[in-house]
Specification:
The complex is a heterodimer. Chain A is mainly alpha-helical. Chain A contains eleven helices and four strands. Chain B is globular and about 65 Å long. Classes of the chains: A mainly alpha, B alpha/beta.
Chain lengths: 303, 379
């Protein structure tokens, strides 16, 4: 019995990271109608930003410690937002009016470029690195379950970021502009909304969340390497499709469901090898039976 | 193309085809030896160590006058720890560079990929450290200078019984690696034969970062110890996450653990755990002492077992070329197969009928952030 709850805690912590990344996929899809495959690599860059920035920050704030951790989180999110905006500016903006397939293939190219550049010795190198300890280690048991601070922090931070994001999208002027662009970009620009600015803003916001995901992932699993974004990025993409691509709460829900399912599969003797396979089987089943995803709504396409 | 040009062209290409075998049998003033290693990627420290050991041996051999009056020329290629690369590289080394023999890989999956190519080309391949039995079963041109997993698995099963006094053991295997699957199989066979029980058997995929699902199940099964026959990069994360989940029992594994990276990433979480390997730099034999001394001078670090095996693989090849008196594939193959009582850094060994080295294993424990020698187990 204990084990079942323990796995639930493990699964939610993993799912929370998927959720943060899935939101980036879904937001970009919402405004541009294309999948930014380089998003998983922004997540990886988030982990490495944390890795390289932590020793610098430790000179002002003690690490592990809460103040230092907050500083690492915020600076990583800012740096990742800039990275996301730059990727859009250099790789996607010149192709804005080209067929969507062109942009999609470019996104795959950007992803490979980041992965292989980072594997070079002059950058991060290919070997696995240990993510620094950012928070004081605290293991405690409650009713036979063992928790650590990180797991709570991962879930808490994810909830706070999701709430903040929902607020931005639903309650602010810029959020309204994002929704307008997503709904009909031509009409939105006729109403005086700068599409270019909104697209940059969306990339920045999504990449900041991916950066936060990178830090949380590093804190939870310790090992970081330049190819870590491939698998996690794909899973987050599955999560976004599972929840209904273009739908923000759907992406969060999809992430959590996927994380929990995957963790239960991983803990079962005999099928533990197939945990990744199960994630992709879910994608296929969803695409067959409910192509709009769990929370997605039907869209009428005018021909 | 005009007919005359065509004629010239085809004559030239015919010549180049005819010329190639001439190159192979030592036309130049050096003897070309190919090496493929994982210099970058997941198992980068394995390839780096074995390459450094091999490189050092080749330099020593050349300083001492080379073999058959010629210098050895080591052509090293990086396979980036990736499946698919070894086949390309070894093809290139054999058909384009015309090497007389190939040295490499540490990881069994990658040696298995290259072995059929070397076998088909009748070019001997000596693996320094691939322990999966299937590697040399590919054919009679494939050799290794290390022990094999049936032996290593038996050693660790007996170790679990006698030293750890474990009755219930959980096994966590890398389902992607031939090495891990093989070692797990032989361990389980012997451990059950010794009267032990398997608390739970779980898999992961090499390169995973999240092991908490598997470790939670293992914790639920309450074993006395966990056998993790994986590679160091995964083992480090497994140890860290086991500690976080409050799983405070010994972990133990095989030679795939031996890397400084295990200590750098695992830190205090790998403290107290055990693994078996080929030799220890703490060995006081004169061969080992001088090897460790020279290696430290050259690379300013302590060599690990992969470096020692890389070193031995190059010497086995050089001695065999000397004994064969030629670098032709079939004769060289016979000479390597006849290797007997070879006095290597990793101990004295012979190659058996299956072209595997018969030699003892060492068990090390991680203590104070270092690998400490515990015991040697003879075959």
């Amino acid at each position: 019995m204990n084990e079942i709850f323990q796995q639930l805690v493990n699964g939610l912590a993993l799912g929370a990271v998927y959720a943060l990344i899935a939101i980036g996929y879904t937001m970009v899809y919402g405004v541009l109608r294309f999948i930014n495959f380089a998003h998983g690599d922004v997540f990886m860059l988030g982990s490495f930003t944390g890795y390289y920035i932590a020793p610098q920050i430790a000179e002002w704030f003690p690490l592990p410690g809460w103040a230092g951790w907050t500083a690492v989180m915020i600076s990583t999110m800012i740096i990742c937002a800039i990275i996301g905006i730059v990727i859009e500016l250099l790789a996607y903006r010149p192709l804005r009016n080209r067929p969507r397939l062109t942009v999609l293939i470019t996104a795959i190219g950007v992803s490979l470029l980041i992965e292989y550049t980072c594997q070079h010795k002059a950058f991060f190198g290919a070997s696995q690195k240990a993510f620094p300890k950012l928070l004081p280690a605290g293991n405690f048991t409650m009713g036979g379950l063992s928790f650590n601070t990180t797991q709570f922090v991962v879930l808490g931070v994810t909830l706070i970021l999701l709430a903040a994001l929902t607020f931005i999208v639903k309650k602010t002027r810029i959020g309204m502009a994002m929704r307008a662009v997503s709904h009909n970009s031509a009409a939105a620009s006729l109403m005086g909304i700068s599409n270019t600015f909104i697209i940059s803003f969306t990339f920045g916001l999504g990449s900041a969340l991916a950066g936060a995901g990178g830090i949380l992932y590093g804190m939870t699993y310790t090992g970081i390497e330049p190819l870590m974004g491939v698998n996690v990025g794909l899973k987050a993409f599955v999560a976004a499709v599972l929840g209904g691509i273009g739908n923000l709460p759907g992406a969060a829900l999809g992430g959590l469901v996927l994380g929990v399912v995957e963790t239960y599969a991983g803990g079962m003797s005999g099928i533990s090898t197939y945990r990744d396979g199960i994630a992709f089987a879910i994608l296929i089943i969803i695409l067959i039976f409910k192509p709009t995803g769990l929370l997605g709504s039907k869209q009428i396409e005018k021909v | 193309m005009k007919p005359v040009n065509l004629l010239v062209f085809s004559a030239a290409s015919l010549l180049s085809v005819l010329g190639l075998p001439g190159c192979k049998s030592g036309g130049g003033d050096t003897i070309k030896v190919g090496e493929f290693a994982s210099l970058t990627g997941k198992e980068a420290t394995f390839g780096t160590s074995s390459h450094e050991g091999t490189q050092m041996a080749v330099e020593e051999i050349n300083e001492a006058g080379g073999v058959l009056g010629k210098k050895l020329e080591l052509l090293t290629e990086d396979d980036q720890s990736k499946a698919g690369e070894p086949a390309n590289i070894v093809n290139k080394l054999i058909s384009r560079d015309g090497v007389v023999a190939v040295l490499g890989e540490v990881a069994s999956s990658r040696s298995l990929e290259a072995a059929p190519i070397a076998q088909a080309a009748k070019i001997p391949l000596i693996s320094p450290a691939s322990t999966n039995p299937k590697v040399t079963e590919v054919g009679d041109y494939i050799f290794r200078v290390c022990f094999i997993d049936p032996f290593q698995g038996t050693v660790m099963a007996n170790f679990a019984n006698k030293t750890l006094k474990a009755k219930k053991v959980a096994v966590l295997t890398d389902a992607k690696s031939d090495y891990s699957k093989g070692l797990a199989k032989y361990f389980k066979e012997q451990f059950v034969k010794n009267g032990g029980t398997l608390a739970s058997e779980l898999d992961y995929n090499g390169g995973d970062k999240d092991f908490k699902a598997q470790l939670t199940t293992i914790k639920g099964a309450a074993p006395d110890a966990v056998f993790v026959p994986g590679y160091y990069n995964d083992v480090a994360l497994i140890a860290i996450q086991a500690k976080e989940l409050g799983l405070s029992i010994p972990l133990f594994g095989g030679d795939g653990w031996e890397s400084d990276n295990l200590l750098q990433v695992g830190k205090d979480a790998v403290e107290g755990h055990y693994f078996s390997t080929h030799c220890s730099p703490e060995d006081t034999s004169p061969k080992m002492t001088s090897f460790v001394g020279n290696y430290k001078k050259k690379y300013s670090k302590t060599p690990d077992a992969m470096a020692a095996l890389g070193y031995d693989s190059a010497y086995v090849l050089a001695e065999s070329i000397k004994r064969a008196g030629t670098t032709e594939g079939p004769k060289l193959r016979e000479a390597i197969a006849a290797t007997k009582d070879f006095d290597g850094v990793t101990g004295k060994f012979s190659l058996d009928a299956k072209r595997d080295a018969v030699k003892s294993a060492a068990i090390l424990q991680i203590k104070d952030g270092k690998f400490k020698f515990l015991e040697t187990i003879a075959p």
